[in-house]
Design a protein that fits this description.
The chain has about 525 residues and is α/β, with parallel strands linked by helices. The protein has 3 domains: about 25-260, Alpha-Beta Complex (2-enoyl-CoA Hydratase, Chain A, domain 1); about 280-440 and about 485-515, Alpha-Beta Complex (2-enoyl-CoA Hydratase, Chain A, domain 1); about 440-485, no CATH class. The chain is about 40% helix and about 20% strand. It has helices spanning about 15-40, 40-50, 55-65, 115-135, 150-170, 190, 210-220, 225-230, 230-235, 245-260, 300, 345-360, 380, 385-400, 415-420, 440-460, 465-485, 485-490, 505-515, and strands spanning about 70-75, 90-95, 100-105, 135-145, 175-185, 195-200, 205, 240-245, 310-315, 320-330, 330-340, 340-345, 365-370, 375, 405-410, 430, 435-440. Strands 1, 2, 3, 4, 5, 6, 7 and 8 form an 8-stranded mixed beta sheet that branches. Strands 9, 10, 11, 13, 15, 16 and 17 form a 7-stranded mixed beta sheet that branches. Helix 6 (about 190) links the parallel strand 5 and strand 6 (about 195-200). Helix 16 runs antiparallel to helix 17. The longest helix has 26 residues, at about 15-40. The model has no long low-confidence stretch (mean pLDDT about 95).
Length: about 525
């Protein structure tokens, strides 16, 4: 075995300072996650309970196999917006009757589970994950449909929810809807387009138009039960495949549906995996609070891969990018990790070759981000940094093996693209609380604007206001700093969640297991033209 050595001194002042900074960020993250867990707040939670109903996460817990993990996705959706953190929807991956499933659950304590623009983005992201990884979808439904004040942002793109359900079914990926309460108007199409439908007695209400709308449209007098009650749909319309006497019975029946799916993984589960040689708690002190200070990503790799065993590829060439082979929870992975932040021509060419090798061997790729981007300057431009950076981006873009990305530190500029940022469709992308991502660093961006403004004033023969320039730079730096933070980006679903560094191995293991539900094969060619 090629076990990675460690030079980490957990007793050094630097390590302790980095650890304290990370713990402070984790405390902030926990406070924001608590907002998502609180849903609509105590008043609406109590009202929901008085109706004899379970909360969204309680429904998920009863659905899952006992003592199995639930990988919640996008928990900070809508952070920093006018909507409740979490976007009135819980999504994630869990095991039901031994089958890994993509689960979505409306949170009816938040405006009756109504969907806002961020709920829609979160649901569509969940559908993308289900389709890419062939995960059966279970929808735990209780929603009043679209949040009407925001309909202009929901109605047009919202039809993609129903399109996705039909595409999943057409691809042979099972879809199950369990209806606990309202599923009205457009929301009625969620059970209408699912393969299997379970409705709860005297609770489920599924109709295109409720009694008031029917009265206005046709003059007909009606009631909820005759229009769309569970018993009516079970006995008359046939929309309900299963009739449940209460919520727990509905979840029991959902488990039985999954047990009978005969859904099989494309790849067998791996053998027993050896734990890393080093304590994962030490991951808290590796990333400096100041991202301008480099750190060795091998210290991270040593604490997440099986047995801390890592075979480095081209260790003496392009040394600011670490590449190599390992296993994670028994699954083979190729790892690309930024070492000194900047990507040069050598690193770009090394990455392109490594990505091609992974595709030849059908090995998933893990990208560990800490990059300020591709190197700039006359020497590097003349040396071909554009074409070499383009070579790396070309390889990432056309690679067909699954990609995983974790933003540990900086992820700026085109380096974010080359390291498989969100626009390059990694199967999963997570961030540490220490991460930052933007077109460039705040000081650099503010400085560029200042230089351009100064040159413009000089060209026009105008005096330059240095005091106004300092104020502008400070304002821009503050704006870019706030917009590059992980909670801001996670709120916009630019990642699948901000995670505790200590959970990285577990999270990646769950993702790799989900990835191996679907067949995949690397690209054997078709990378486009590499400019040499």
């Amino acid at each position: 075995m090629t076990v990675l050595p460690t030079a980490l001194d957990v007793n050094s002042p630097d390590y302790r300072a980095h650890r304290e900074a990370m713990l402070a960020k984790l405390a902030e993250l926990e406070a924001e996650h608590a907002k998502a867990l609180a849903g609509g707040g105590p008043k609406y939670v109590e009202r929901h309970r008085k109706r004899g109903k379970l909360l969204a996460r309680e429904r998920i817990e009863l659905l899952l196999d006992p003592d199995t993990p639930f990988l919640e996705l996008s928990p900070l959706a809508a952070w920093g917006s006018d909507y409740t953190v979490g976007a009135s929807l819980v999504t994630g991956i869990g095991v039901v009757e031994g089958v890994e499933c993509l689960i979505t659950a409306n949170d009816p304590t938040v405006r009756g589970g109504a969907s806002n623009p961020w709920s829609l983005k979160k649901a569509l992201r969940a559908n993308d994950i289900a389709l890419a990884n062939r995960l059966p979808c279970i929808s735990l439904v209780e929603s009043g449909g679209a949040d009407l004040p925001s309909q202009k942002e929901i109605f047009i793109p919202g039809g993609a929810i129903f399109r996705d359900l039909t595409r999943l079914s057409a691809a042979g990926i099972p879809t199950v809807a369990v209806v606990f309460g309202n599923s009205t108007a457009g929301g009625a199409y969620v059970p209408g387009m699912s393969d299997h439908v379970i409705m709860v007695k005297e609770r489920a209400k599924v109709f295109l138009g409720g009694p008031p709308l029917v009265k206005m449209a046709t003059g007909e007098e009606s009631d909820d039960e005759s229009l769309g009650g569970a018993e009516m749909h079970a006995r008359v319309s046939g929309l309900a495949d299963y009739f449940a006497v209460d919520e727990r019975d509905a979840l029991r029946q959902a488990r039985r549906v999954v047990a009978r799916l005969n859904h099989r993984k494309a790849h067998p589960d791996p053998p027993f995996a050896e734990e890393p040689k080093y304590d994962n708690g030490e991951l808290l002190g590796i990333v400096p609070g100041d991202l301008k200070v480099p750190f060795d990503p091998r210290e991270v790799i040593a604490r997440i891969v099986d047995g801390s065993d890592f075979d480095e590829f081209k260790p003496l060439y392009g040394t600011s990018l670490v590449t190599g082979w390992a296993a994670l929870h028994g699954y083979p992975v190729g790892i690309l990790a930024n070492a000194q932040g900047v990507l040069f021509s050598a690193e770009s060419q090394k990455a392109a070759q490594f990505i091609q090798l992974a595709n030849q061997r059908d090995i998933p790729l893990l990208f560990l981000h800490n990059t300020t981007g591709y190197m700039v300057g006359r020497e590097y431009e003349q040396g071909g940094i554009i074409k070499h950076g383009a070579m790396m981006i070309n390889a990432v873009s056309n690679s067909r093996v699954p990609h995983l990305s974790v933003l540990m530190g900086a992820s700026y500029g085109a380096g974010h693209y080359g390291m498989c940022g969100r626009a390059y469709d990694p199967r999963f992308l997570f961030a540490w609380p220490s991460a930052k991502s933007a077109v460039m660093g705040p000081q650099q961006l503010a400085g560029v604007l200042s230089i351009v403004a100064r040159q413009s004033a000089a060209a026009k023969g105008h005096p330059y206001d240095d005091e106004a320039d300092a104020a502008l730079r400070a304002m821009v730096e503050q704006q870019i700093e706030s917009e590059s933070l992980p909670m801001f980006l996670s709120g916009r679903l630019y990642d699948d969640g901000v995670i505790d560094p200590r959970d990285t191995r577990t999270v990646l293991g769950l993702c790799l297991s989900a990835i191996h539900t679907a067949p995949f094969e690397g690209a054997r060619g078709g990378f486009g033209v590499f400019r040499m």
